[in-house]
Amino acid sequence: MAARLPARPVSDLWDLSISDGRVASIEAHDPRAPRLSHLPGVLDASGCLLAPSLCHAHIHLDKCFLLQDPKFADLEIERGDFAEALALTQKAKARFEQDDLLRRGRQLIEESIRYGVTAMRAFVEVDADVGFKCLDAGLKLKHEFEARCEVQICAFAQLPLFSGPDEGKTIRNLMSEAVVRDGVDVVGSTPYVESKHESVQQNVEWISSLALEHGKFLDLHLDYHLDRAKEPFVWEALETFKRNRWVEEKGKMITLGHCTRLTHFDNEEWSRLREAIGDVPVSFVGLPTSDLFMMRTNEDVRGTLNVPKLIQEHKLQAAIAVNNVGNAFTPQGSCDPLAIASLGIGVYQTGTRTGAEILYECVSNRAKAAMGLPAAGIEMAEGDPADFVLLDSAGPEWRCRKRLAEVVYDPPEVRKTIKGGHITTR
């Protein structure tokens, strides 16, 4: 009751009713009507902003909090580059066990829910070192939190599939077993880690075919570099998707993460990319905290995709996400998607109200769309999923955020998370 809604005048308050996990009605609030907040199932918003819930379109569940966990205290950052991050993570993975995977993963999901998250794509690695340890923990957490957060599990090959030890055969065999596990929603890989171009091609062809064969979403970490001399692989990847007839795979999105090489594109190249994508269900996910920490450049390039520009100027599907929390790839930041949106104000230099609203969408309905999930837009209407975050303020009334732009400029600490019409914040 008595909630402010995005895309509506800030002076107006609204009452929403929920039925079967969806918005049944939205009616103007009558201030003369008796307060019903004492009744079960009634939430008095007290004039606070009720907005579509938040979403992690891309977050690593198994590698979180490694810099804080006492078990990995000796694995400190000394150089802060990609090679070191990879080496430190491999050392940590050699010590992974169910207890710490569940402890750290559970903490990440709990913190995310408190921030307003109702859905996430959680990456868990599969390789010869960890086997199915990360996947087993991820699937257990998916089941544990299913009533409070939709945890979309991505079985992920971080290491090469066609180069390295035994030319990647072991990892391919493990991934072939992982894809048929109950609860695995997505398969993914990192083609850029392969040692030669031919292996990159094989990687994308194999993992996309695996996804298609088993009806899974596909998520690739692609073109994660800033080398102008190196032709981006996105062109060949798109040809692979078309050849494999992804357009006919209704509802199964392809997500391309990082893609930092594309920051060198000019408007002509972006137009060419939009045309090349055509009807292929591709969405880009920018990962600014990780990209800005890992990508070194002396040029006037910020090292991360300008997601608002992709959306506004190039009409591409895109979102932004947290990616890593508390590890050598991304030591800074938290589980809060709004912190990423707020960071975007400076990174993308988009301080307008419209720009801030797009950034909110990038960690809300656009993020859910990248995962292939239904989502309420900021207009909010009858029939939308009843997945919300109530954005409150611990300060005086005038500090209560009344617009999405205010929420992005200065994210409030006090929030209530609602999934399917039920409060999930503990």
Automatic annotation (TrEMBL):
Superkingdom of origin: Eukaryota
SUPFAM superfamilies: Composite domain of metallo-dependent hydrolases, Metallo-dependent hydrolases
Protein name: Cytosine deaminase protein-like protein
Organism this protein belongs to: Phyllosticta citribraziliensis
Phylogenetic classification of the source organism: Eukaryota, Fungi, Dikarya, Ascomycota, Pezizomycotina
